[in-house]
Write a structure and sequence with these properties.
Layout (H helix, E strand, L loop, with lengths): L8 H20 L11 H4 L2 H8 L10 H27 L5 H5 L12
């Protein structure tokens, strides 16, 4: 099954961009840890790069607000598709880390 947004050029472009950003992040921090925090200097200014990517993506008669909403939808679709791919590619069962997990029952709260 193809990802939902692959028929939209803006989604394809943003998915490619997000993949590049994730590749850069993996090069800067090749461990599975989220520490240390990545900086703009290490990844580049993602906000500016996103704005440049969508600078030519507009429809005739589209208001600024409509363009913002449409671009947000394209970004969300691209991010969801990439997130889904990451989940599928990393979900290999049984995984040794799952054996280390223990689920604790929540402590019941006393109602005053």
């Amino acid at each position: 099954m193809a990802p939902r947004g692959d028929g939209v050029q803006g989604v394809r472009s943003y998915k490619a961009f997000l993949s590049e950003v994730l590749d850069r992040a993996a090069q800067v921090n090749p461990t599975a840890s989220i520490e240390p925090e990545l900086t703009k200097a290490e990844l580049g200014d993602v906000s500016s790069q996103t704005a440049q990517l969508f600078a030519t993506e507009f429809l005739p008669d589209e208001t600024k607000e409509q363009r913002k909403l449409r671009q947000g939808a394209m970004i969300e679709t691209a991010a969801r598709d990439i997130f889904g791919q990451l989940i599928v590619s990393n979900l290999i069962l049984p995984h040794e880390r799952f054996a280390q997990l223990s689920i604790e029952e929540p402590t019941p709260r006393k109602v005053a």
